[in-house]
Amino acid sequence: MPDAWLKGPVAGVPAALQPVAHALENLRIELEAALADATDAELWQQPAGAAPAGFHIRHLCGSVDRLFTYARDESLTETQLAVLGAEREPGATPPGAAALRHLLDETLARAMAQLRTTRESTLDEPRAVGRKRLPSTVRGLLFHAAEHGARHTGQVVTTMKMVRGTR
User: Fold this and answer.
1) Dihedral angle over CA of 54, 58, 64, 68, nearest 10
2) Rounded to whole angstroms, how far apart are CA atoms 127 and 136?
């Protein structure tokens, strides 16, 4: 299957944001393949001490959510801050493959919906990031979300290859 950018424009997404939309579509494609036959336990294995794939998926989803929130010029909610604090810990009952796929689907659906409603005229508007209110723009936040997500997708793919090698 060709990469998303080779399939043409994503319907309803402004031209300037097509690279973000394509990157998010690629995340979905690559993660679906990486998780295709993963067991719940495999998602939380730490081969050679690497962070588990489950962490990377949760962090990817949380990061996209937080960065898109800043792009809307909103502050993080208490729920988002709690998610941030809990991303690294699998918890007593770590989320399994179905739950992580659902989280990914919901996150990417919200992100794509936001891309479709983002006006190109707002892309260079300033935005503040985090408690320190570091400077960025709508464009910078959306592109960073896609880029950051791609990094974690690569880590999921690599980690799952390592886990499958121990089967």
Assistant:
1) 170
2) 5
The torsion defined by the Cα of 122, 125, 130 and 132, in degrees rounded to 10, comes to -170
CA 104 vs CA 53, 87, 167: distances in Å: 13, 14, 25
Burial level of 43, CB count in 10 A (0-12/13-18/19+)? buried
Nearest Cα to Cα of residue 26 among 156, 124, 117: 156
Q: For residues 41 and 151, give the distance between their C-alpha atoms in angstroms, rounded to a whole number.
A: 23
Per-residue pLDDT of the chain in tens (167 residues, 90 and over written 9): 788 999 999 999 999 999 999 999 999 999 999 999 999 999 999 999 999 999 999 999 999 999 999 999 999 999 999 888 887 777 767 889 999 999 999 999 999 999 999 999 999 999 999 989 999 999 999 999 999 999 999 999 999 999 998 86
Answer whether 138's CB lies under 8 Å from 124's CB.
Answer: yes
Does the domain made of 13-164 have the CATH classification 1.20.120.450? yes
Question: Domain boundaries in the chain?
Answer: 13-164
Q: Token pair 């919906």 is at which residue?
A: 113
Quote the crossing angle between the two packed helices 97-117 and 53-71, to the nearest 10°.
20
